[in-house]
Structures are given as C-alpha cells and as structure tokens.
Amino acid sequence: MKPSVGLIGLGLMGRPIAANLLKKGFSLTVWNRTASRAQDLVSQGARLVATPHEAAAASDVLIMIVSDPPAVEQVLWGEKGAFSGLRRGSVLVDSSTVSPELARRSAAACAERGIEYLDAPVTGGTWGAEKGELVMMVGGAAETLKRVEPIFGAIAKRWFHLGPAGAGQTVKLAMNLLLALEVEALAEALALTTAGGVAGERLVEVMQSSMGRAPVLDVKAPLLLERKYPPSFPLRLMHKDLALALDLAKQLGVSLPAGSAARDVYAKILNSAREDLDYAAIGRYWDKAAGA
Amino acid sequence: MKPSVGLIGLGLMGRPIAANLLKKGFSLTVWNRTASRAQDLVSQGARLVATPHEAAAASDVLIMIVSDPPAVEQVLWGEKGAFSGLRRGSVLVDSSTVSPELARRSAAACAERGIEYLDAPVTGGTWGAEKGELVMMVGGAAETLKRVEPIFGAIAKRWFHLGPAGAGQTVKLAMNLLLALEVEALAEALALTTAGGVAGERLVEVMQSSMGRAPVLDVKAPLLLERKYPPSFPLRLMHKDLALALDLAKQLGVSLPAGSAARDVYAKILNSAREDLDYAAIGRYWDKAAGA
Fold it and tell me: Which structural domain, as residue segments, surrounds residue B257?
C-alpha cells in the first residue's frame, strides 16, 4: 500500500509537487500558511488541514518545502507544529533550502522522537517541478531514502544521496552559488557588450554557440534582454540562498570572492525592488548604473 | 581560384587552424616568432617565411592569431612587419584577442593603405580549433566578410557579423568574462562543497543533471577535481583577457563586481605559478587558502 503523504508549503515549487503526487495516486494532506493557495489542489483530491500538526499526524511521510530557515523552525517547533503530530516511525523530508546546521538540528530532533529524517532540497525550478523532473540532493540514512524513493519518483527525475543529514543542503547551497554566479556572469557580460555598442541579443547568440552555454542562461537571457522579470525563482529566495552559502563559507573559513561580490549586487536590487522579481532582475543593477 | 592565405602565430590555436587550412587545400604561408613550431606544418605543405613582411607579401588574406596587444603591434607595425608587406586590395584578419580600441586602430591603418580589415577573434578552445569548429566574432565590413567566408568555413562552424571594426573584440571580451566567471563559479562551489565535507565529484554529478551544466564546466571540472591543469586555454591568456575586459568596462563606465573579484583570483594564481597552467588552475586559490 502506498504511504500517505503530507506536504507543507504550497509556493511556486510546492504546488506542482503536490499536483504530481496526486497524479501518481498518493493520498495527500496539505497545509499552507495562506490556505487559499490550496484551492486547486483540493479540487484535484488533496485534503487541506488547518495546522502543520494535522498534516503531520495524517502522514507516513511528511514533506516540507517552505521559503527559509525561520519558516522551517516555525513549521516544526511552532505552536501546532509538525513535531507535535509526527508519529514514531514516520519520515520527515525537508525540501526547503536551509543551512546544513539547521538540517542537522532537525535530524537530531527527529532522532529523539523516533522519526526518520532526510534533507532533500531540489533544483530544476518551477519547470522541473511541473514536469516531475526535479533533481534532489539528499542527506540522511540510505535506508530512509529507500523508503521514500517511490514518492521521490513522482516528483524528480534523479536524486543523489550525498551523505549524512546536512549533506543535501551543503550541495544545494553550492549549486545555488553556482547558478547565481552564472546569471551574474551573463548579466555582467551583457552590460559590457551593450555599453560597447553591440546589442545584447548578439552576445546571447554567440554564447549559445559556445562552451559557455547553459540551460539556466538560455532561460534567463530573454528576461535580461527584455528587462522583464516575472518570478520563476524569486530574487528574494536566491538572495537568501547566497546569504546562507556565504554564512556557511564563513563558518568553514572558505573565501568566495566572486560569490560575495555577486551577493552585493543581488542585495542592492532586492532592496530597491518593490515587486516580486525573478533573480535575473540583477540586470537592473546596470540599468541603474546607466541612469536608466 | 582559392585566395592565398598567410597565417601569423602558431600557438595552441594557430597550429590546428593552419592544419585545417592545409587540409582544405589553401596555399598557406606561415610565420611564427619561434620558427621551430612550424615544423609539422611545413611537412604538411605550408611555406615557412622569416618575417611577418614576407607572410603578408605572399598572401591575399593574412590571418593573425597572436597572444596579446603588444604582439599584434609588433607584428603589424614592427620592423619587417605585416604593414610593410600587405598589398592594396588584400585582407587582414586579426583573430587575436585585443581591445576594441586596438582593433579600430588596426582598421584605420588598413584603410589608409587600401587594405580591408576584420577583427575576428575566436572561441571554442583547442578542441574547436582542431575540429575546425571554432566560433568567430567578426567586426568590419560585410563585403569583406563575404570575401573571406570560404576561408572561415575551413576553420569555424559559425561566424557572427557583430558590427564595425572592434565589435568582434567587444563580444569576445564579454564572452571570456562569462567563461572566466563560470569556471570561477564552479571553483567556488567546489571549495564550499569540499570544505562542507562532501566530495567535489558529487557536486559535479549534480551540476551535470542541473540547469547550471555547461560544456566549459564539463571540460574544466575534471581538472579542478584532479588538481592537474595542463594548459588548453592558458591562465595567463585568460588573465590578460579579463584585464582587457575590465579596462574596457572602466573606459565605458561599467561596473563588473564579480568579474573584478574573479580577476583578483586569476591574478593571484598566475603570480604564484611557475608553470604554464590552464585557467582552471584558479582551483589552487583554495588549496592555498586551506594550507594545502
């Protein structure tokens, strides 16, 4: 019999993940801070509950994908939180992006309660989430991963077991550092090209025939060229992930010179934006510099 | 009848370019500062001459691909230089990577002498040069490009006409800024991953399943993982190109925060290296930081 699944967090990633779980026939209980976001999923068969506690109590496997460390702490340890509902022998999968330290703290809290734990942050964006083709970076016990593989198969094309609790988050922060810097690299190259009198479109054409081409750049280049930034992966989340990566680097005594410079660009645009923008909106850094 | 071709500069890029021109049946005259490097090409049918002047005088189309702006100035304006040999109506193609300003100065000097000029720097590395699959970024007159397309077809899979003289160099500097930052991004992500206790190989696996994957990273990742850096594109040349990109940015009033931070990493490793290393050798920045 299929395990009952709970999902906490119905944002840009959580909603398509939930839809794929329903499509694959999992019994699904959902909770979201803003309950109205569950409407579509309820009509597809999800059961909406009023607290993380209820979602946890109804589930063999509880997945959470919320926006940041404070949200994770609130969901797990807060009033009517998941830890008050999770049963001994159940599994908690945290697919949020947080620090490895918080992942290890969550894992320890699970262990005390006889709950199994995985950190399993994802990459692939909303597109990957919709197609059920995410890539998951997993930390925790191999046997626990084995238990949840049928569920992961509904939402991801691949998963990598990277080590004990926290290892998934370490690699996820490194991946987002890489992605943030790749988009920063294209934005800087475009700024130089256009200031030099050549249309940015031409650089993108050359880039797409070059060793530098990357799927993330194919996706973000049109946003940078059109200066329109509807959020696929929001700037505020990428900024948070860069901050987590730089915090981790500092703890570990690792210098990340370009990552640090890029974080300042992300911070500047985030602070000046009133809308919810995609992280490609760092392109605005040069609009402003040019007085546009 | 096929135009006679001259080639000045038989480095890592020039030699395979020359070999492809010979294979396609072009009559080829070559010059190199270190004449011994022409040995193989002579046995394949190239004519080796003793000065840039002679190579220029023998050619309808003279291509040069040398390492930096001083080398270009020496070859063109130096004693027994190309300008003393190039005939009215011939074409000079500069495939070196230099500043757009030097490209415009070369173009003006050509125009005074009734010579046509293109800047046509290349991307694709030694692999692309060997396969005849370079990508060329072209500045200059469209009619001049039309004249040399049969020659470009022997060495490149695509060429982009990007604007007047200098436009090819502008886009080339932006492209190398992009590539240098992509490799810097991977090096920083690897440093964070390994310091966090996960093998770098695992990050590379995840990267290759992600939106961040890029051919340049597939090629450079093994060098970074093995900490061995045989030069494909030498660090000293990438450092020079970053310096040219940052000079251009300064002239144009464009800020490149991550590019600037990356340049400092490239400079540090270049200054401490006694061998000729590939630009992936920036990975040593973290070996040193870790005291390794």
Answer: 170-290
